[in-house]
Amino acid sequence: MSRSAEAVHETLRHSEGFRSAQDIFTEMRADGAKIGLTTVYRALQALSDDGRVDVLRTDDGESVYRACATGDHHHHLVCRHCGHTVEVAGPDVERWAERVAAQNGFTEITHTVEVFGTCNSCTASAER
Amino acid sequence: MSRSAEAVHETLRHSEGFRSAQDIFTEMRADGAKIGLTTVYRALQALSDDGRVDVLRTDDGESVYRACATGDHHHHLVCRHCGHTVEVAGPDVERWAERVAAQNGFTEITHTVEVFGTCNSCTASAER
DNA sequence: GGTCAAAATGAAAACGGTTGTCAAAGTCAG
DNA sequence: CTGACTTTGACAACCGTTTTCATTTTGACC
Ligand SMILES: [Zn+2]
Ligand SMILES: [Zn+2]
Ligand SMILES: [Zn+2]
Ligand SMILES: [Zn+2]
Asked: What integer pLDDT is reported at residue A21 of this predicted model?
């Protein structure tokens, strides 16, 4: 793993929620890092290939990345306002996916499961 | 709803799986329809706003559309080879999502749940 | 130190799906 | 038929991402 990839990973580990390549690039530059946008993209690619960061797509088609605490399979509960993210295990969902797939003769299953909502601190701010 | 939007909806209803705007455009043109790509995009936008078609994003960032049989909330089991799609209800997943959200203080939940796999007819072809 | 090949880098160009523009065509009530 | 309003579609613009390719950095070997 290249030096820049480590730097990108480091930046990501200091972030709470999912961040876009542009976000990361801008932040690293602001912090004085000499890095190009292309390199950030390449680093994110490598990191996600290695399973060291999770990727998901926003509604508007942007890829966003996060350095999750666990390398094990998990899903996310994401605040759509502040980006605050909680990693959640979903044994029930895993079983449901396998069952429904088996019932319909599907094999080699993969799945995407993400939950979006408003976190309690954002709810509090809105009420204030 | 405009005339073209109905035509797009009609084309979509004759399709089995999820189709891209380009796909639909190409097929309609091949069938002799006089329609522009822009209009197809506008129709798909309108149809999905009205909940008459479902949209999902492929891994490579393309939006694909499908006229599902039910207007009720449901998820999809999609064959990643032939696109064959089964609509599935997921009461267990719905409950799981609400529970995990509540446990973490999240409200106003939405979720995306899609299952991808290989359908039995594609498994059969591969073995042949 | 020096040499050199392989790997990494980044500015700029290309790419591809999608959206915006705007003038032309269609629709329809009066 | 007229005029207002809507719909259409060729084309350009947009934007996140990938590719290109010349330059720089790295690291093994001397
Ligand atoms: Zn929040
Ligand atoms: Zn899972
Ligand atoms: Zn199939
Ligand atoms: Zn659901």
From this structure: 98
Indicate whether A34 and A89 sit together in one domain: no
Q: Is the pLDDT of residue A45 over 70?
A: yes
Domain that residue B44 falls in? 1-68
Read off the DSSP letter of residue B105. Answer: T
Residue A62 Cβ < 7 Å to strand D: yes
Q: What is the mean pLDDT of residues A84-99?
A: 94
Using alpha carbons, select from B82, B8, B73, B71 the residue that is nearest to residue B39: B8
Over residues B94-107, the mean pLDDT reads 96
Residue A90: which of B86, B96, B116 has the nearest Cβ?
A: B96
Helix axis angle for A37-49 and A3-13, nearest 10°, is 80
Residue B104 to residue A86, Cβ atoms within 8 A: yes
Residue B42 touches partner A, C-beta closer than 8 Å: no
User: Which residues fall inside 5 Å of ion ligand 4, going by CB?
Assistant: B 94
Interface with A, mutate which of B45, B75, B113, B127 (most A CBs under 10 A): B113
Residues B112 and B94 occupy one common structural domain: yes
Q: Could you tell me which of B78, B72, B73, B74 has the C-alpha nearest to residue B64?
A: B78
Give pLDDT tens digits for A9-43.
999 999 999 999 999 999 999 999 999 999 999 99
Phi-psi region of A105 (alpha: psi -120 to 50; beta: other; left: phi over 0): left
Residue B14 pLDDT class (50, 70, 90 cuts): very high
Final residue in a domain of this structure, among A68, A94, A113 = A68
